[in-house]
Amino acid sequence: MCRMAAFSLKKVEDISWVIEYVKQMARFGKKGPHCDGWGYVLLNTNKKVEYKSISPAYDDNKSPNLNDEKFEMGIVHARLASDGLDKTRLQLHPFYKDGKYFAHNGTIITANRQNPYDSDTYDFFKHVASFDNFGHIVKLVREYGEENEFSGMNFLMIDDLTDELYVGCYYTPGQDRKDYFTLFYGCDDERFFVFSERPVNDYSKIPSSEYRPMQNGEIFKVSSGKIVERGNVFDV
Hints:
By secondary structure, this protein is an alpha+beta fold. It has helices spanning 16-28, 120-128, 134-147, 175-181; strands at residues 2-13, 38-43, 48-53, 71-79, 95-97, 100-105, 154-159, 164-169, 184-187, 191-195, 212-213, 218-223, 226-232. Strands 3-2-4-1-10-9-11 form a seven-stranded antiparallel β-sheet, covered by helices on one side. The protein has a six-stranded antiparallel β-sheet with strand order 5-6-7-8-12-13, with helices on one face.
């Protein structure tokens, strides 16, 4: 179980508010606190910043100072480990493989955790990371969901080679799960943000009222702040 966020921008911006809102979600958000570590990857044309810590996001006073930095794409993730799972730095998101970064929210109960990270997320990541095109990733996500028992398979994935962001909202139906797993996205012509919970106006650069819920099964491909492709695992 986790709280997470991602963004894709046409131009670099100060995104410290995104990190601060993830910290707020981690501490005070639904089913909080999410206290089993956190991590992020932030990118611009000339720089990549990666960070992970087993400290709770909201108590970590040793993370890099990013107040003077600007970025155009990134993922931020705060973890709450499911019962029985390890709580070490190895399980912290986002994971990296073959030019892609991946974060996930939910528990995949029947995932094969026989990997270096003992992680259901990494098993999910391995299954979908080798996609050829957008239609293919929708198909791979659907197949993995059909093969496994899960509470949620929400994911955020950055392709570092193409500067594209992929966002998926996918969970086993149920009102409690809908409330917890629905992702909220806000976008204009040059900016795209997505969060585990609707941002409040004190934080967001896009008004809170303009954030929309993703539908269950929905997947986006985002480039330079714009949604360029949409699909749904239930339509494949």
